[in-house]
Amino acid sequence: MNHVLKAHVSRKGGGKPVAALAAGFMLLAASIIAVPQGFADTAPTNPNDPKTPVTVSADALPTVQIDGVVWSQTIIGNTVYAVGKFSSARPAGAAPGSQTVPRQNILAYSLTTGALISSFAPTLNAQGLTITTSPDKSRLYVGGDFTSVSGQTRNRVVALNPTTGAVLSGFAPKVNGSVRAVVASADTVWVGGLFTTVGTVARNRLAAFRSSDGFMLAWNPNASGGRVNALVVSPDYKRVVAGGAFTTLNGSSKPGYGLGATDAVSGGIIATPVNDVVRNAGSGAAITSLSTDGTNWYGTAYDFAGTGLLEGAFSANWSNLGLKWLEDCHGDSYSLFANNTAAYVAGHPHYCGNLGGFPETSPRTWHRAIAFSKAATRTLTADTQGYKSFTGQPAPELLTWFPDMDTGTATGQNQGPWHVTGNSQYILMGGEFKTVNFKGQQGLVRFAVSSLAPNKEGPRSSAAATNPALSSPAKGQIKVRWQSNWDRDNSNLTYQVYRDGVVVNTQAKATTFWNRPTLEYLDTVASGSAHSYRIVVKDPFGNSKPSTTVSFTAK
């Protein structure tokens, strides 16, 4: 099914179900601790290994909620600014419709507490689609569908005071269509979207303005065949990369098919080798976001109608605009933010098998928030689900970070998070989800590094699912077998085998929700004796879950 929204395009990707990974068997001697395979999480065994960087916790921190959808967020100091399509805000924990205060398509909240900032309350008369800051953080730039901001005429782009929310005078370009992307240097503001004119001058989906007075600059790349969804500017402000559904850029389709770099002053097209591989444009595919961590730049993409190649995300180098890695976790990806350790993606992936991740299931399972290593650690295998294959391309590691986010109803597009951003301590998701980890939390949520998080996300499987299965293969022996558990943000779990209330064996095993091998322990007891067994699993933060107690008599 294809879903088209004003601000974004969403797709429930297709694919054939595949069999679950086969369970392995493991026989360990009494009281031997096995060294687990390393997976990245909040407490990896080797955080310096490029395959196992530290992630934020999956604990959903209390955050102000909204009654619609959040499309974009940005941070200045301890303040987070969010724009979208909503009319009210309410505190964390408040039920829909209760304890509300008016907020018209824009708000601010505390990064560290999640509480709404009451002193910041400008209004947009239509949805905000993108928000960013000036390099010195003295300005907010907002783009969207609005024509009025706090009662003042502003046509789809506005500059705001980040402290008071006041509209800044002198910056008032007259853009005739949606602004979906904004990036800025100290003296220039570049915008992209669906517009065709600025004032009376033709500008085909891309334009630039002097930040001091809104004067339109000569930068005039021509994006044809589809809208611009995203922009990212290089750290030296000399290149601006555009992404979207356009099929040519300045008449070129390579680069220019959904993605291409331009000179930040002249608008001339620049060789963009990543577009040789990532080609998403036209009526059924697009680049959905672009971002940078200052060293690399990143993009996300979807393909529904076969006019594109990639469903997933990619990383590229600023040095040569070439591909660093690519992940093709189907379906669509909408936003990526890379902090100092990992890259976080918002979307609705349901199949990551080509890089050793979770398989397709029937019925389909959506994982709307996932994370990857920033380093290329493997290569993609041939696709088996009928998608375009990127066999042999460099790929990152899928990390153990799987918060549960549900499907929202605000847009009618059956999606959850649409945007992710953050810093070295926090990851912020915005969208139309209504719950996070099965608890009410609408539209906005924060996650933090373990030193700032409660670290209460423990083993997930039920007690019954990990009950030991007992047998007696020989006189004086009881074999204890159980299925391993899984955790949203820790792969390395420890298992204790209790016999008659006393620990007789401890094992460590790295697992994920799709790979939970059966573990074993062979116990030596008196022939004919009866015993009770229980399994207790713990994560690195002490969160534990016991099985029930099962009794058995040895031969």
Describe how the helices and strands are arranged.
Elements (H helix, E strand, L loop, with lengths): L1 E3 L4 E3 L15 E2 L36 E2 L2 E8 L2 E7 L2 E3 L10 E2 L3 E5 L17 E6 L6 E5 L3 E2 L2 E2 L3 E4 L18 E6 L3 E6 L3 E2 L2 E2 L3 E5 L12 E2 L3 E6 L5 E6 L3 E2 L9 E5 L5 E2 L14 E8 L3 E8 L8 E6 L5 E5 L5 E6 L3 E6 L21 E5 L4 E2 L14 E2 L21 E6 L3 E6 L3 E2 L2 E2 L3 E5 L20 E3 L5 E7 L8 E8 L2 E9 L7 E7 L5 E9 L5 E3 L3 E4 L2
Parallel strand pairs: 3-44
Antiparallel strand pairs: 1-2, 4-7, 5-6, 6-9, 7-8, 10-11, 11-14, 12-13, 15-16, 16-19, 17-18, 20-23, 21-22, 22-24, 24-25, 26-27, 27-28, 28-29, 30-31, 31-32, 33-34, 35-36, 36-39, 37-38, 40-41, 41-44, 42-43, 42-45, 45-46, 45-47
Describe the protein in words.
The model is unreliable at 1-38 (pLDDT under 50). The protein contains no helices and 47 strands. It is 0% helix and 39% strand. It is mainly β and 555 residues long.
Overall pLDDT score: 93
Overall geometric form: elongated
Largest sheet: 5 strands, antiparallel
Estimated helix fraction: under 10%
Summarize the structure.
0% of the residues lie in helices and 39% in strands. The protein has 555 residues and is an all-beta fold.
List keywords for this structure.
single chain, 555 residues, mainly beta, five-stranded antiparallel beta sheet, four-stranded mixed beta sheet, 39% strand, disordered N terminus
